[in-house]
Design goal:
There is one protein chain. By secondary structure, this protein is mostly helical. The chain has one domain (2-71). 82% of the residues lie in helices and 0% in strands. It has four helices and no strands. The protein has helices at residues 2-6, 10-31, 35-54, 59-71. Helix 2 runs antiparallel to helix 3 (35-54). The longest helix is centred in the N-terminal third of the chain and has 22 residues, at 10-31.
Length: 73
């Protein structure tokens, strides 16, 4: 599964991180404020945070960060 995530383009990675949160917000607009939409927003926020915190541990991101360090030296 992790190798599958390494093969995604940067734009697709951002989309997979943001899409659940945006979908939960749209449901909240359509359905109103209720327990379901509150839980979905919480889960979407956690999913986004996990993606942001896990991104530096992917092989491709680690290489990009190392390349940035060499550029600024």
């Amino acid at each position: 599964m992790l190798s599958l995530l390494d093969d995604l383009s940067p734009h697709l990675r951002v989309a997979t991180a943001v899409a659940p949160f945006v979908a939960a917000l749209l449901l909240r607009i359509v359905l109103g404020k209720n327990r379901l939409t509150g839980v979905l927003i919480s889960v979407g926020t956690m999913w986004f945070a996990i993606n942001v915190f896990a991104a530096p541990y992917s092989a491709r991101m680690t290489q990009d960060l190392q390349n940035l360090q060499s550029i600024f030296r």
